[in-house]
Amino acid sequence: MSSALDARLIAAHEAGDKAALVTLYQQAAETTTDQRAHWFYLTHAYVFALDCGAPQAAQLHALLKAAGREA
Amino acid sequence: MTLQSDLSQVRQPVALAQGLPNAHYTDPQVHEEERQALLFGGWAGLAVSAQVPEPGDAVPLEFLGVPLLLLRDREGTVRVFQNICRHRGMILVQEPRKIEGAIRCPYHSWCYSTEGRLVSTPHVGGPGQNTHDTINRDALGLIEVRSHVWFNTVFINLDGKAAPFEEVHADLLQRWAEFNQPMVHGGSDSQFTLDVATNWKLAVENYCESYHLPWVHPGLNSYSRLEDHYNIEKPGQYSGQGSLLYRQITGDDGAIFPDFPNLSNQWDTGAEYVAVYPNVLLGAQRDHCFVIILEPVSQSQTREHIHLYYATHNTDDALRQKNAALWKTVFIEDIFVVEGMQKGRLAPDFDGGKFSPAMDGPTHCFHDWAATRVCALRAQAQQQTQQPAQAAE
User: Fold this and answer.
1) CB B284, CB B300: distance < 8 Å
2) How many structural domains does chain A have?
3) Is A54 part of the contact surface with chain B (CB cutoff 8 Å)?
């Protein structure tokens, strides 16, 4: 994860900006080459999408489920 | 260990009975018995449904120390859950808020739907792996408390063993069937809270009899005289008082509240005030109703939550505020007697008191209900202690 993205994630956490957290964790998942980190970040994106009722929740769930990482 | 209070005299007919002994107001052990027998074992008032007006609205509450979550789900159904995550027992919702999507535990982010289903368990099988063979989500939903909404009031049965609400209160539901219609909460100027240094039962006992009205509420004499009242007694369920001479409040400009539609003639000048056991006090009148939830904060401390309801949304602001002020005055007038009786329960030779058979029937009815339930709990406990002994013989 780039330091810039890391800083934006920390700022979004501090602000409680859940919609931003969904997007930023998705970006983190897309930019990492580490598979474990990829699913870790995608899980976070999904959880915050669930939390705030973001429309991405269904798509993120489908991705995780297809990979055997979500029920 | 405290000796059990003697309740045989309480369960006599009103002419012979004595009131509940002092221990029911001062002894922590008896308070614990009543917690189980009266408040957890019956249908207790928790809140009013207007506290969660929109889907997703969530309000954390405590009832006798039990953390609860009052919530209106996505479909609009009012639900009550134990306010804890099934993972580590963390409190889920700390302050009133809107649940936009899921209820996310702030500890490890297990997520629940507003219907209580466990929908996500992030990293439960390791980083990025959100399932595990031993985590059965179907068995790990939020723990729902039995609840029932009637008269805009959210009733709960915490031990889950009471008969259905409609069965327990069939008589009152029939009696007040005409008020089974939409009511509009008057809003922020139509609710208030009173903190009172008394046992919650004394607030019930005072509310359900009219005997005290001319002495404690002299202002009511002009329009609600003692001789215009009658007793309401339904053993085991509710008791209270009715008035044959209810007069509508009017504003300085002659404004009145619109009536609830389709009421029978009985309500033209009639009004009824009942205590729904254990802790809900209701008032029904042609143009407005009220709900009082008695929150038993401790054995000697009660918080009274008062809410006023009307037939329509567009009631007159000044009249609504005048009405709320009037009722607040009346309920504040009651504080010195319920606090005084609580202090009086520390007099060692008070025997529970002598009832007026003519005037105290509704209070005796409540005492009889309380005593019967406490006796049943004691009998059950005795049976349980005897069974292991018999098994060992």
Assistant:
1) no
2) 1
3) yes
B205-238 pLDDT per residue, tens: 999 988 888 888 888 766 567 778 899 999 999 9
Does residue B348 share a domain with residue B222?
yes
Q: Does A65 touch chain B (CB under 8 A)?
A: no
pLDDT tens for B71-99 read: 999 999 999 999 999 999 999 999 999 99
Q: B237 and B335: one domain?
A: yes
Say how far apart CA B235 and CA B37 lie, in whole Å: 16
B191 and B268 inside one domain: yes
Range of the domain at B108: 53-150
Q: What's the domain range around A15?
A: 3-66
Select the residue of A36, A51, A64 nearest B101 (Cβ to Cβ). A51
Contact A25, A9 (CB under 8 A): yes
Q: What is the edge-to-edge ordering of all strands in the sheet holding B111-112?
A: B103-104, B111-112, B118-120
- pTM beyond cutoff 0.90: yes
Query: Cβ–Cβ of A47/B104 closer than 8 Å?
Result: yes
Which alpha helices (DSSP H) does chain B contain, by range?
Answer: 23-26, 28-34, 165-168, 170-175, 200-207, 213-216, 266-269, 317-333, 335-344, 361-392
Nearest residue on chain B to A55, alpha-carbon basis: B101
